[in-house]
Amino acid sequence: MFVGQRWNALTMSHKRWWLLPALLLTGVLAMTDAAATPVTFNTALPVSRDEAVVRIQAKSLRATDDSGPMNRKLAVDALPLVVGWGLSARWTLFGIVPLLDKRLRVSLPAGHVTRGVRGVGDVTAMLRYTVYQNDQLGRTFRIAPFAALEMPSGKDDERDSLGHLPATLQLGSGSWDSLIGIVTTVQSLKTEWGLSTDYKFNRQANGFQLGDEARIDLSYHRRIAAYNIAGSGPCFLYAGLEDNLVWQNKNHSGGVNDNDSGGTTLYFAPTLQYVTMRTVTGLAVQTPVIQQLNGDALEQDFIATLSLRVNF
Amino acid sequence: MKKLPLLLAMLIFAWSGLAMAAGTQYELRVDGLSCPFCAYGIEKKLKKTPGVESVEINLERGMVVVKARTGVVLTKAQMKKLVKDAGFSLRSMTEKALP
Predict the structure, then answer these.
(1) Engineering a disulfide at A145: which of A182, A206, A263, B51 sits with its beta carbon 3.0 to 4.6 angstroms away?
(2) Is A89 within 8 Å of B32 when comparing Cβ atoms?
(3) Tens digit of each residue's pLDDT (9 = 90 or more) over B30-83
(4) Which residue of A45, A88, A136 is in closest CB contact with B31?
(5) What is the ipTM of this complex?
(6) DSSP labels, B33-88
(7) Mean pLDDT of chain B
(8) Is residue B94 pLDDT above 60, yes or no?
């Protein structure tokens, strides 16, 4: 058996690590647009009509806790660029372009093998509509459903010296995938609550279908300091806690379900954000506190996110 | 004595010029302003409005203070639309001539 074939046979029998980059990329949808908002998911707060908000994030996922003989180590780094454009007071259009770097290292009898890929992933377009808005002095309460379409713009036929990369390591899924959800935000000058839920429908491409995904996110942020800097206006510092409950269905490959894929993960993430009138700088580290995954698993260590939002 | 009317006319002209420079101050009470980052949307829209010289935002009071040149009129309907387009709600608006 060639090394590449053996590598594929070994890793494809333990596909659940595929869940990990998928989870990271769904975090790409955390395209918040106002202050003290969640770092790891969406918000209902406004983008002004005919104005743009840009968000760039640096996300790193590490999964190294493999009890099996392959001693798998997965590293996924992503730079999702998000642009939000206010179509009207209630409608906002978002575009997300992720730059990805995926690397999987596996121990084989012949030695260590690392395979990976780097480039632009699937581009996502998302529409959000504010159906309910209650504004009072220094506080707002909003509810906004959203829908997204992930286009198969990322390459899904990458190869390396060992041959064709498995679907799990490709930059793109090759399929048109969709997502619907709803987000609620309650924000005052001192605190912010966020609650979001969404469902992602993944379709088949190249004989492989990533399992559908559902998630519920909850956030709480509290202002811990306020400054008034001459020429820059008010600046706030927030500390927060975020929880993400993510469920993923089993993958479907070659006409059958992959029993070593899918499962449920609960993340817990402390956050810190510094907010000015022009920028929001945020940091979050998601730690999986519960991982109930199907079959053998490569469990996650953490997902770290550094985020910068800029008003233009 | 023949120069007195001319002198008076010059003083009146100079005074009116100062008055024009003072302009009008509008105070907008805006609901929903809960963070500096989102408040920037209103500030940016106001600064794009012709005749607006300065914008100050007090988040704690939900107050947006706009200074406009004399002769420039900001109507409540205009401000209501502007604030709404920024994603917020205009509760009230007052104006006064600056001394």
Answers:
(1) A182
(2) no
(3) 999 998 998 899 999 999 999 999 999 999 999 999 999 998 999 999 999 999
(4) A136
(5) 0.79
(6) ---HHHHHHHHHHHHHSTTEEEEEEETTTTEEEEEE-TT----HHHHHHHHHHTT-
(7) 86
(8) yes
Phi, psi of A276 (to 5 degrees): -120, -175
Q: Which residue has the tokens 């106001």?
A: B46
Q: What is the mean pLDDT of residues A48-52?
A: 91
User: What residues of A are in contact with residue B57 (Cβ under 8 Å)?
Assistant: 233-234
A257-270 per-position pLDDT tens digit: 988 888 999 999 99
Range of the domain at A207: 3-311
Comparing alpha-carbon positions, the chain A residue that sits nearest to B60 is: A138
**pTM of the complete model:** 0.83
Inter-chain touch A47–B87, beta carbons under 8 Å:
yes
Residue with tokens 């006064």: B96
**Could you tell me the residue ranges of all domains in chain B?**
23-97
Identity of the residue in B37, B41, B85 whose CB atom sits nearest the CB atom of A280: B37
Q: Are the C-beta atoms of A281 and A253 separated by less than 8 Å?
A: no
Q: Which residues 263-282 on chain A approach chain B with CB closer than 8 angstroms? A: 275-280
The domain spanning residue A202 has which CATH number?
2.40.160.40
Number of structural domains, chain A?
1
The shortest CB-CB distance from A311 to any of B31, B33, B37 is to: B37
In whole angstroms, what is the distance from residue B35 CA to residue A189 CA?
6
| Residue A49 contacts B, CB cutoff 8 Å | yes
Provide the CATH number for the domain formed by B23-97 in this structure. 3.30.70.100
Query: Do A71 and A122 form a contact (C-beta atoms < 8 A)?
Result: no
